[in-house]
């Protein structure tokens, strides 16, 4: 089962991706994480190209598709893949279909996270991340270190109000087309609405599982 997660920054794609990967033994592919890894290495051929991430803009389709294609080559044995942060444009969605069909795979499920802007801002401005395992915490939880790795939590460079507003704008402009693309395709389309800051990741995960069960997908 291959799953695409759609949703604005802060909608919980990364967290749900982790939970789904654990529950169903799937592999996660996060373009954001791949890019942040590349940005750790100034000698990487894509280092300069990826600087625009700091402005909240999208990386070009050509570069994203190449990075995803390379990452997919390493996942030939995966039972299923969860795409987090990809595709973000219709061109990327089409490229993904091509890449997957050459591997005899397809997008089986799309999960679309509709989260109100108030909830998104609350989460992003308070987001603290484990640089090691990428687990996400909220500043209000009061943790300084990752509960699993005991590594000091960090704030993402692009989690500040100015850049967040640009990321929202980019998301709105580009992703509507991707939603339409998948609604018109024959994969299962699960749409979730989250409008309460107190909704826990576990609650959302259980909701996803029940939607998957309803469709006989798990
Ligand atoms: P978020 O969804 O919270 O903005 P991500 O970690 O998914 O964060 O991505 C961080 C940044 O990396 C994005 O703001 C964008 O600049 C870039 N990026 C990630 N995935 C893509 C993609 N599929 N297409 C273009 N740019 C991307
Ligand atoms: Zn950790």
Total number of beta strands: 7
Following the backbone from N to C, one meets helices and strands in this order, namely EHEHHEHEHEEHEH
Mean pLDDT, all residues? 95
Give me the CATH superfamily: P-loop containing nucleotide triphosphate hydrolases
Number of helices: 7
Q: Structurally, how many domains make up the residues?
A: 1
Terminal Cα span: 9 Å
Bound molecules: adenosine-5'-diphosphate, zinc ion
Derived structural class: alpha/beta
Query: C-alpha Rg, in Å?
Result: 17 Å
Please name the CATH architecture: 3-Layer(aba) Sandwich
User: Given the C-alpha coordinates, what overall shape results?
Assistant: globular
Folded structure, characterized:
The N and C termini lie close together (9 Å). The chain has one domain: P-loop containing nucleotide triphosphate hydrolases (Rossmann fold, 3-Layer(aba) Sandwich). The protein is globular. Strand 5 (127-129) and strand 6 form a beta hairpin. Helix 1 crosses helix 7. It is of the alpha/beta class and 218 residues long. It contains 7 helices and 7 strands; from the N terminus they run E-H-E-H-H-E-H-E-H-E-E-H-E-H. The strands form 2 sheets. A 5-stranded parallel sheet has the order 2-3-1-4-7, with helices on both faces. Bound molecules: adenosine-5'-diphosphate and zinc ion. Zinc ion binds at residues 130, 132-133, 135, 146, 148-149, 151. Zinc ion is lined by residues 130, 132-133, 135, 146, 148-149, 151.
């Amino acid at each position: 089962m291959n799953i695409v997660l759609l949703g604005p920054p802060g909608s919980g794609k990364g967290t749900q991706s982790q939970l789904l990967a654990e529950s169903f033994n799937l592999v996660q592919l996060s373009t954001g994480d791949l890019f942040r890894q590349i940005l750790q290495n100034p000698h990487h051929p894509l280092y300069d190209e990826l600087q625009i991430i700091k402005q909240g803009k999208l990386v070009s389709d050509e570069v994203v598709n190449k990075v995803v294609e390379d990452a997919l080559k390493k996942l030939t044995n995966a039972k299923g893949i969860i795409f987090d942060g990809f595709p973000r444009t219709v061109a990327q969605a089409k490229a993904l279909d091509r890449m997957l069909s050459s591997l005899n795979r397809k997008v089986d499920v799309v999960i679309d996270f509709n989260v109100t802007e108030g909830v998104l801002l609350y989460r992003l401005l308070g987001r603290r991340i484990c640089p090691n395992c990428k687990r996400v915490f909220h500043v209000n939880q009061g943790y300084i270190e990752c509960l699993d790795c005991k590594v000091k939590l960090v704030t993402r460079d692009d989690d500040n109000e100015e850049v967040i507003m640009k990321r929202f704008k980019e998301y709105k402009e580009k992703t509507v087309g991707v939603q339409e693309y998948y609604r018109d395709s024959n994969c299962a389309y699960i749409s979730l609405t989250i409008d309460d800051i107190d909704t826990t990741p576990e609650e959302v995960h259980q909701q996803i599982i029940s939607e998957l069960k309803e469709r006989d997908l798990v």
